[in-house]
Amino acid sequence: MQESEIDPATYTINGSVLTITFDDSDGEEDMLLATISGNTITFVVESGYYAEEDSPTGGTIFVEQDLTYVFTKL
Prior knowledge:
single chain
């Protein structure tokens, strides 16, 4: 079974900057900036990846990283 979720958003393009505006999980308006270069769109989600795991030596290990998405039209 495939799940899908529809989240309305708007976008504007000004030169090589694509701005996507949407409501975040708290219902607050949020913005995502992307760059357009030829047939490629690139954007970064700051702290977009987060993981937590118990350490074998005790304590907890936390990992948080930015995620970079690159979309290329073929």
